[in-house]
Amino acid sequence: MPDQIKNQIKKLKEQINRADYRYYVLADPEISDAEYDCLMSKLKELEEHNLQYKSADSPTVRVSGGILEGFRTLKHKQKMLSLDNSYSFDEIKEWMERVYKSMPRLEGEFTVEPKIDGVSVNLVYDKGSLSVASTRGDGQTGEDVTENIKTIRSVPLKLLESSDTPDSIEIRGEIYMRKQDLSLLNKEREVVKETIFANPRNAAAGSLKLLDRAIVAERKLRFFAHSLGEYKGDTPLTHWEFIKRLQKWGVPAVEEAKVCFTFEEIVGVCQAWQKKRDSLDYEIDGMVIKVNNISWQKRLGVTLKSPRWAVAYKFPAQQVTTKINDILVQVGRTGVVTPVAALDPVECAGVVISRATLHNFDEIGRLGIKINDRVVIERAGEVIPKIVKVIFSLRNGNEKDFVIPKACPACGGKLIKEKEEEVAWRCLNLSCPAQLEEGLIHFASRSAIDIEGLGEAVIEQLVRKGLVKDFADIYQLKKEDLLTLELFKDKKADNLLEAIELSRKRELSRFLYGLGIRHVGEKAAFVLSRKFGSLKRLMQVKLEEFDAVYEIGPVMARSIYEFFRQESSRRLMDKFSSLGVSPRSESLIVKQGLLSGKTVVFTGELKNFSRSQAEKIVRQAGGSATSTVSKNTDFVVIGNSPGLKYRKAKELGVTVINEEEFGRMIL
Ligand code: IVH
C-alpha cells in the first residue's frame, strides 16, 4: 500500500513536470488546464495525507503561499561575471582579434545569441533537483530567492532524466517578463496608482524581491538559461553542446544560439536579430558573442569583472539633436505631474518626435536643462524618447530657467510628494479633470461599485458635457441628462438610473477600492472596510492607527491617511453622504466582527465546508484566513488527516480546534 502511494505520487509529479515543460518551455501543451488542475489537486491531497513522501522538489511547492521574512545571502560556488559591452561591429572585430591572439583559429569558434533584458540568477541543481536559487548580487554573493524562483513555472524543479544529468550544476540565466505580461501588470498598477515599471528588467527585479510568494507567482515571470557556473560531472565540450543539454533536461535556454565561424557571419546574425527585435515577445538589448569551446574559454580566463571569452554587442540607440521650445507640465491619469519637453520636430529611428519626457522635475536640474536649449535625444528601441544631454556649447543667451509649479496645472490642487526622498509630485484631487474620466471608469467597474451600463463611452460623454464633475455627481444624474447622450432612449436611461440606484447599497470595501486610492487594491480595501467600518470613521483615523493594521504597510498607511486628509477628498465624501451614499462595512453586515483581528489557518479535509467557503466565512466574520502557521496565528482549524501545519501549530503552541468547534464559534 505505501509503495503504491509512493508510486502514484511519483507518477503525478512526473506528469505535472512534463505538463509544465510542454507549456512553459516548448509552448506546446499536451493537456488542458482542467486536467492540469486535476493532477495538481490529486497530488496535493496525496501529499497532505502522506507527509513522508512530500519533497522539496514537488510541483505543489509552486502553489503554496507564504510570506518570507527577508532574504539571506548566499555565496556562489563560482563567481557570477558580467559582460564587457561593445557598441559597434568594429569593437567586435577588435575583440575577436584579441581572442585569436591567444588561441589557434579553428572552425566553429563562436556562438551568437540574444542578450535578454532581465535579471540574472544562479540556479543550483543537486542530483537533478533545484536546491537553491540566488540573485547575482555583487558577483560573489547574492540573495537567496529560492522560494520565489520556485513559483516560476518555466524553471524546472527537477531536470528531466538523462544519462548526462550532472551530480551538481550551477545554471545561470535571466528572469524576465514578457512584453505583454508587463503591459497587463502596468495597467493593473495604474488602477491602484502604483508607479509603473519602465521596462521588463525593472519589473522582473522588483518582482523577484517581493516577500509574498503568492504575489510573485501572479507576476508571470519566466526564465531563459544562458551560461554555466560550476559543473560536477561530465562537462560539455562547447557552449552549444551545453545549450543542447539544457534543452534535453527541460531547461528553457536562450533561443537559437548560432555557431558562427567568421566575423561576417556574426554581424549577419546580430543584424537579423536587430531587425526582428520589436516583434519578439520579450525584450532584448543586444547580442552576446561567446567563444564556443569551453576549454578555450577556461584558457582565455577572466579579467576583474568579465570574461575574455565573451562580449556583448549592444544595439545602437539612435540619437539626434534638436531644440527645446518649451517645457510643459502634464498631469497623468494617476495624478503624477510630469514635465515634458516640447521639441522642434525631428526624425529619430524612423519616427518623428516632437515631445520627450523629462520623467520628473529633478531630471531637469540633473541635466541642467533650460528652455531654448539644444539637446541630444535618443530612442533606444523603447517607446518613449529621452533627453540625453544639453549641448552647452550652443547656448546663445536666449535660454530661460524653468520654474516648478506649486499647483496642479489641471485643477489648481496642491501637489504632494509621497515621501521626502520621492521624486514624483502628485495631485490627489479625485475630481481633477485630468484624472476624472479614468477614475470614474474604475469606480464604476464590476469589481468596484459595479454600475452596469456606465462604461467608458458613457463616462466620456458625461464628463465632456460637464454633467459629471466629480464621482458623486453620478448620484445626481437625471433622466433628461441621460437622454442627451448618444444612443440613449427611454429604456436605456431608466436602466442606467436603476443600476446607479442599486450601487448606493454596495459594500464599503468596493466603494473604497473604487476610489482608486494609491496602493489600495481589493484586499486592502477589504481590510480597511472591516477594520474601520465607515467612511466617517476613516476620515478620523490617525496615521498610527492605519500603520498599526497588520496588512497595511507604512507606505500604504501614509497614502490612505493623506487621501482622507485632503480637503478635496473630504468635500467629496460629504457630498456622497448628502446624496445618500453611505456604504457600510461588510463586517457589520455579517457576524459583527466575531473573528475581528484573528488569523486562522485550515489544514486537512473539512466535512461541512469547502476550503474556500470556510476561508470566506472567516473573512466575513472579520478575521483573516492565511495559509501558513506562525506565532501570529490565533488558531488552526483541523479537518480530517491534518497536514504539516498541525504539527507546526503544536510546536508553536498555537490553539488548535476541530471543525465542530469552529462551526460553533461562527454560528
Ligand atoms: S553570458 C560571464 N548570455 O547580461 C557572463 N549573459 O551584462 C555570463 N545576459 O550578467 C553571461 N543574456 O545576466 C550571457 N545570452 C546571454 C545573456 C546574458 C543576458 C546578462 C547576464 C549578464 C549580463 C551582462
**Structural class of the helix and strand makeup?**
alpha+beta
Terminal-residue CA separation: 40 Å
Q: What percent of the residues sit in helical stretches (DSSP H or I)?
A: 25-40%
Average pLDDT score: 87
Number of strands: 22
Low-confidence stretches: none
What would you report as the Rg, rounded to the nearest angstrom? 29 Å
Name every ligand kind in the structure: 2-(butylsulfanyl)adenosine
What best-fitting shape do the alpha-carbon axes yield?
Answer: flat
The largest pleated sheet is described as: 7 strands, antiparallel
Strand content: 15-25%
Counting DSSP H or I runs of 4 or more residues, the number of helices is: 25
